């Protein structure tokens, strides 16, 4: 098994208005943006400085007709996309886009876990994946959060697929237990059982910024909204959950208020 198996390696926004989304995230996070030069559709590479971290693309009418929804999706590196996709299907998950090749890049599939949270698989082949950035690097994703129907069975599913391990379990009172999980021995995210009134299970990605209040100001100035927060978490960091102008949810994390 490679060192990259089970690591989040790419983040992608599918949006109904690509130019507006590009302007918003450039203003809020400061990503550099460059057209990928794909032959069949426009695809914008998002970079933190010189480091590519994800992509942005517009949903076509055909995509929407087929059931695609605007939002962020995370790509998890695996050694064998087809084999892992088959295991997901066997475990009661969904194959939303069967495994296929990205010429010169790798192989991918879009899948859903047995509780309905959507994510992607990515195999980079002989090229390997890019090593992770230093923790806290602005513009990179610093935390991965799953709002599950049932956190315990959700964790068991991902641990079996990717080798993720249990970290600290944080008692959040009426909200229940927030289960931190580790990837490669390092804390990488958390899982919790969502409240009954919340939407279907989903993954939420926290982007590193320098200061949370200044970032909130940029969100509002650029036409986004704060959905929850800011809050200070046990390690001292500050977080906020937001909606972009197309109502796609994302989150921010910073070392200071």
From TrEMBL:
CDD domains: SgaA_N_like. It comes from the Bacteria. InterPro entries: Anthracycline_SecMetBiosynth, Glyas_Bleomycin-R_OHBP_Dase, Glyas_Fos-R_dOase_dom, VOC_core. Residues 7-124, 140-255 form the VOC domain. Pfam families: Glyoxalase. This is VOC family protein. The lineage of its organism: Bacteria, Pseudomonadati, Pseudomonadota, Alphaproteobacteria, Acetobacterales.
């Amino acid at each position: 098994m490679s060192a990259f198996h089970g690591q989040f390696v790419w983040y992608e926004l599918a949006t109904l208005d690509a130019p507006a989304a590009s302007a918003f995230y450039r203003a809020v996070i400061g990503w550099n943006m460059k057209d990928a030069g794909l032959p069949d559709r426009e695809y914008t590479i998002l970079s933190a400085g010189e480091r590519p971290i994800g992509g942005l693309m517009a949903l076509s009418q055909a995509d929407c007709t087929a059931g695609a929804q605007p939002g962020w999706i995370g790509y998890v590196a695996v050694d064998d996309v087809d084999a892992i996709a088959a295991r997901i299907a066997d475990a009661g998950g969904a194959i939303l886009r069967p495994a296929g090749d990205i010429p010169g890049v790798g192989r991918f599939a879009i899948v859903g876990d047995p509780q309905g949270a959507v994510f992607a698989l990515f195999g980079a082949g002989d090229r390997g994946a890019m090593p992770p950035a230093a923790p806290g690097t602005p513009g990179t994703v610093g935390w991965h959060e799953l709002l599950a129907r049932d956190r315990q069975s959700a964790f068991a599913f991902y641990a079996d697929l990717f080798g993720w391990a249990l970290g600290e379990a944080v008692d959040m009172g009426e909200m229940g237990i927030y289960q931190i999980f580790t990837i490669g021995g390092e804390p990488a995210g958390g899982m919790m059982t969502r409240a009954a009134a919340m939407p279907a299970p989903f993954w939420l990605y926290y982007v590193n910024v320098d200061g949370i209040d200044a970032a909130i100001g940029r969100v509002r100035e650029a036409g986004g909204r704060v959905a929850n927060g800011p809050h200070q978490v046990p390690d001292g960091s500050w977080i906020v959950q937001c909606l972009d102008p197309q109502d796609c949810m994302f989150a921010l994390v910073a070392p200071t208020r």
